[in-house]
Structures are given as C-alpha cells and as structure tokens.
Amino acid sequence: MTVLEQILEANRRFVASPPSGLSPAAPKPSKLPRRQIALLTCMDTRLVDFLEPAVGIRRQDAVVIKNAGNSVTGPFGASIRSLLLAIFELGVREILVIGHEDCGAAGADPAALTAKMLARGISADAIKMIEGQLAAWLGNIHHPEANVAQVVGRIHANPLIPREIPVHGLLFDPHGGGIRVIVDGYAPPPEK
Ligand SMILES: [Zn+2]
Fold it and tell me: In angstroms, how far is the first alpha carbon of the chain from the final one?
C-alpha cells in the first residue's frame, strides 16, 4: 500500500466507526479555543499525541501552531500571522512557546543542509537565495532553551501583538514528558 492508500484506508475505518463524541449526530464543535490559549511548538514527531496530553490540552482547548524549532522568523512570518488570527479572530488571550530538549532543528548545520540539497538536485541559484536566512535561522536555534527565550522576546516585542497578552516560554522533555518554565509571562518585564 502506498502512503496515500494507508491514509485513505485509515480514514475509511475512522469515518465508519468514529470515536465517541464524533458521530454525525454530535453537536458541531466550535473552532474557538475554549481555554483561549495558543501554543507555538515544534514539528517533532515525538510531540505528536504526547505534548498535548502532557500539558492537559484537549481537542478544542487551544490553537496549536507547529514548525521546526518553534520558530518566529520575521515580524510578519507565518508564526506571527497565525498568532494574529488566533488573537484577533479566535479570541486567544495567552501564548505558550513550548520548545523541547533534544530538538532536531538545534543540530541542523546550514552547510551540511545545503550540501544535502545540492546532492538532491536543488539548484545552486535557489540555495543562494536562502543562504543568509538559513544560516541566521539555524544559528538561532542551536540551543533550545535560548531559542525559547528569544522567540518569547520576539513575540513580546512585535508591535502587532497586544502588550497585555502574557507570553510564556517552556521547555519540554520529549522522553519523560516533563516541562519547565524558561520565561514566566506573568512576571514583570526586566528593567531596561
Ligand atoms: Zn524540535
């Protein structure tokens, strides 16, 4: 079976006997996050079906935004756009940036990555377009704890994000499931 066939087969089984609460007769779920929170976290496979239960987040509780290294790239990059919609359209009032230990993005090396891209036939011209950005981005996420603090700082400093929204920074252990606070979004900002 191809991947697509596996996915479609799983979907046929799912629709034929849905989990309780998902039957067509059940009330239509709201798309608004019940707990008015947004999570920005990593795309790591080990977090799937693991991070949410580990922090008590259930379906419809929160907006969950994922990318490699829970990154914020630029003042109007995809993560910020998602957060703007989450805040102004979906009623989010609090943001949690959840990085994790042992992050694959932290170990990625720009030179090795571009070499792999070249070896797979990606044109040198195309790589030239992203070279500087790639190095800057991966350079920032070499240390998951520092990356979380930096991403929190970027969200907090973004002029499009309302000042009163607390932004917390957390670090998750993808093995044991424990979490620790890197930035407490309720604490007053440090004196400048
Ligand atoms: Zn990661």
Answer: 59
CA separation for the pair 129, 135 (Å, rounded): 12
Judge whether 133 lies within some domain. no
**Neighbouring-strand partners of residue 95:** 38, 167
166 alpha carbon – ligand 1 mean position (Å): 23
CA of 26 to the centre of ligand 1 (A): 36
φ, ψ for residue 99, nearest 5 deg: -85, 180
Weakly modelled stretches of the chain, pLDDT under 70: 21, 189-192
Task: Give pLDDT, residue 29.
Answer: 86
Do residues 177 and 101 touch, judged by C-beta distance below 8 A? Answer: no
Q: Is residue 191 part of a domain?
A: no
Cα(58) to ligand 1 centroid in Å equals 21
| DSSP three-state, residue 14 | helix
What's 148's domain CATH number?
Answer: 3.40.1050.10
The alpha carbon of 144 and the centre of ligand 1 are apart by a number of angstroms equal to: 8
CA–centroid distance, 130 to ligand 1, in Å, is 21
pTM summary value:
0.93
Ligand 1 center from residue 13 Cα (angstroms): 31
Q: How far is the CA of 174 from the centre of ligand 1 (A)?
A: 9
Q: How many domains does the chain have?
A: 1
In a domain, 112, yes or no: no
Q: Are 14 and 125 in contact (CB under 8 A)?
A: no
Asked whether residue 49 is assigned to any structural domain, the reply reads yes
